Amino acid sequence: MGLKEKTLELTEILKDYPNCKVVIATKLFTPEQVEELYNLGYRDFGENRVEMFLEKYHHLEHYKDIKWHFFGNLQTRKVREIASHLDCLHSLDSETTAYELDKRLNKELDCYVQVNISEEKNKCGVPYLQVKNFICRMANYPKIRIIGLMCIGTMTPNEDILEDEFSRMKELQEEIQDLGLAYAPCTELSMGMSNDFKIALKEGATCIRLGRYFLR
Asked: How far apart (Å, rounded) are the C-alpha atoms in residues 87 and 108?
């Protein structure tokens, strides 16, 4: 099935979730394939490695309506390379990264705080019970705007585990939203990838990150 056919399939799936944004995870795509996806109507593209981000960005930078997202662990020494190109960071989990971004940005940056919802030691993200305190500290960085929370669900065929994780993310997002912090409206949930996005949609995702889905 080609990219156009997968787009039609996805449109049908998302008809009950009109407020959910699709961000194309471009890791597995060539720049030319990303351009094909642009021509199919997608405007949000993201990467998890700085080098690949810059490759795709420069190939398509003449398309001024694209929003560029970054999902991966953003090392502080790499911040300067992409800060001016970013529209949204999905993986904020370090005060050091917030400091470096705030120092180099010339405008506010929409950010999701990455939550280690599975509590696995080898995963990035702020521990679930520390998220509120972390977001409160973001008040020190005026160019960081916390629009929501992001997580990577456990790689498991057990849907009950995923439902529980995504449900807990929704509860936490609402708790932070209720704090009424001007710099952290926290109205969004970036959760769900190619293997689990249908579950994430049911649990309240407002942004899903899809890549491999288009290649099946």
From this structure: 9
Nearest to 185 by CA among 194, 193, 176: 176
Mean pLDDT of 83-94: 96
Closest to 59 (Cα-Cα) out of 75, 83, 36: 36
- Return phi, psi of residue 120, to 5°: -85, 135
Structural domains for the chain: 19-215 (3.20.20.10)
Q: To which residue do tokens 């502080």 refer?
A: 76
pTM over 0.70: yes
Q: Residue 183 in contact with residue 144, Cβ under 8 Å?
A: yes
Structure tokens at 119: 């509590």
> Which residues lie below 8 Å from residue 54, measured CB to CB, with a gap of 6+?
81, 82, 85
Yes or no: say if 195 and 211 are a contact pair by the CB < 8 Å rule.
no
DSSP-assigned beta bridge partners for residue 22? 208
Q: How far apart are CA 216 and CA 210, in angstroms?
A: 12
